[in-house]
Amino acid sequence: MDDQRKRTIIAEIENWRRNHLLPEHYCIFLLNLYTEGDRPSTPASAGRGEGKRADALASGAGVATGNSSPSASYAYATRTVAPVTGKMVMAWLLGAFVIAGLILLAFHFNRFTTPMQITIFACFALVFYILGYAFRRQAPPLTHLFLTFCFVLLIAGGIYCIQQLNGSMALTLLYLGVVCVFLCLSAFIFGYAYLLYCGMLGLALIYGFATEQRIGEGYTWWKSELYWVPLACLLTGLGFLMNSGNPKWAGVFAVCGLISFFGAEIQALYISEAKRDVIQLLLFIKVFLASALFFFTRGYWYTWLRL
Fold it and tell me: What pTM did the predictor assign?
């Protein structure tokens, strides 16, 4: 590069630096790059602390490019501790009070009446759900954590309260079904596919548990297939229909439909009247059919699985 063009570029970078069109450390890095380390000093308007931090960053960048002097290679960027603010104190106090409240509830929870226990579970689950929604953009990992707390509380707390009220198994399955439907709805609210997976597979487990006794009475393999194969075809068909518009959700429906395709054989393992050799034969046939479907529709599956 000729000297005239280099001087023009350096003057333009200086102009960016004076008018704050680029961050300070970016400008210093570019000046080090085009002046081969012989850059001008940081202006006083940037402040001592900012100038030192920018110098350290620029020196590190110069070492990476091989254009800085030996003395600059020993400069390191230092971090300053943020001053204590009112928000930090309030957050610390709020966290301390929440932890203390949880400890008190854990030690005295059994002393509360059942309606009070239900209220406590519901309030905590609602708070975690709202926090998850509030942090879904700023801190997605916190959203996953809050959603986990919320649904664990809903499932464990709900089952515990139903047992305290001497509720029947049908009431427990109905409650878990409502929670799974809520999981599916939350998947569309938050945009997380794993919530839809959990909700759909949870509904499939509840369906299998609820129909086990009915299928076990006078068990025949074709009767069991009638309970599961239409459901699997419905879910898989929805997946193919949704592929063009919503491939993300289409993959979830198709995979859940494929898992439900083997639901009859999985359920038959818990039915004493079912013959194991028939289950094995049906599994072999279904694996062949599923692999053939996977092969002939691989264009859809590759999109869903992001291969």
Answer: 0.66
